Amino acid sequence: MVKERLNTKEILIVASTLFGLFFGAGNIIFPVSMGQLAGNNVWQAVSGFILTAVGLPLLGVAAMGMSHSQGVQDLSQKVSKSYSYFFTLALYLTIGPFFAIPRTATVSFEVGLAGMVPSESSKLWLWLYTAVFFALAYLLARRPGKILDYIGRYLNPSFLVLLAVIIVVAFWHPLGNPATIVPDPVYQEGAFTQGILEGYNTMDALASLAFGIIIVNAIRSLGVMDPSHIGIETVKSGLFAILAMGIIYACLALLGAQSRGLFPSAENGGIAIAQITSHYFGAVGLLLLAIIMFVACLKTAVGLIVACSETFYDLFGGRLSLSWWTVIVTLVSFLAANVGLTNIIAFSLPVLMLLYPLAIVLIVLALFDRYIIHKSLYKWVTAFTLIPALFDFVKTLPAPFYDWVSGDSWQSLGSRIFPLYDYGFAWLVPSLIGLIVGLLFIQWQKRKIDI
């Protein structure tokens, strides 16, 4: 039966699916780390973080429904066919074997095993741990069966209950007062914009383009078929998911800020959450958290391996079998994981600074797709966005690569020609200019045809 809206029960079902799709064990580490660095500016940082870590993914899913798109490649083809191959490949490599999949292993390692082994042999233990982790992930990716559904059904509630216990105990016996914590220099001015950039690390806006069709199909299966109604019902359902995720992110950030009363800023959020858990619950609590994180991250890794393998198989026309793509994705993820969590985060940042602006303009345009008669507008806006995004990419490269490409020269030029460059938003004004130029060009073409 076709209908215009979902009932309350159906909205809650979709909201639960949204929450489960976007909130994973890896999402814990970034708000905790941000809270440690933001100090007494934690609430400004959280506001920005929620905007990109929760708001953008929701809009991404809505955009998939309102634009009639069947996936990220279908949506990005509105720019051009060649661009769709580049963007789809870059996106899936980012949420796949280069960054997101390796991060599932390193997060669970940092939270669990890293604090229990000698620091001088931690690299060896990381190799051993990731070997076991990805061997299991590969076996499950080949034959997922019902075990993943079982894990998801019982693990996610257990994970959230344990997380809630940690947060409640930490707030009942705080390690410090965030109001007295001096922010890190990058959070002393512009904590809100820094929080926005920190939200990129969740990669959830990119994931929304890759997996948004799952939510769209779920809403369609409940009887809502009109694209505009699908977008509305996605937003309505997403309000519940936003509320839940926003509360969790805020609590985790505050938890991180409080921890500065006893601990210095950790190298990454995995170390920070392990220190906090160990302080309150000792080795037993840390072990329990480690087990749950391991299984939760393993489930995420398996899902991403399957999704990436299927995408690469389709993208390259079946030149390699799906089984071989599963092997390749798993092996590359294993190798990438052994650079360590801190390095994975450092190397992923430039890529995210490049891809996020492209994803944001694609999402915004797709939301208004029904009003965009001439698809050349997608090309104009994307072209004007890509150039400054490249400058943001270079600006955030790790030191050796930054020096190799003469990053200072890029910085000097970028700060002169792009407004908001110093805040990490060099792309914003050019994308608006691209929109105006595109609209003027379309009008010019119309007049030329009329004449």
Automatic annotation (TrEMBL):
Transmembrane segments: 12-30, 42-64, 85-104, 124-141, 153-173, 205-225, 237-259, 279-308, 320-339, 345-368, 380-401, 421-442
Membrane topology term: Multi-pass membrane protein
A Pfam family reported for this protein in Swiss-Prot or TrEMBL: Branch_AA_trans
Record keywords: Amino-acid transport, Cell membrane, Membrane, Transmembrane, Transmembrane helix, Transport
InterPro entries, per the entry: Brnchd-chn_aa_trnsp_Livcs
GO molecular function, one term: L-valine transmembrane transporter activity
Entry's localization field: Cell membrane
GO cellular component: plasma membrane
UniProt keyword Methyltransferase, yes or no: no
Domain of life: Bacteria
GO-annotated biological processes: isoleucine transport; L-leucine transport
Family: Belongs to the branched chain amino acid transporter family.
Function text: Component of the transport system for branched-chain amino acids.
Name of the featured protein: Branched-chain amino acid transport system carrier protein
Species of provenance: Aerococcus kribbianus
Gene that encodes the chain: brnQ
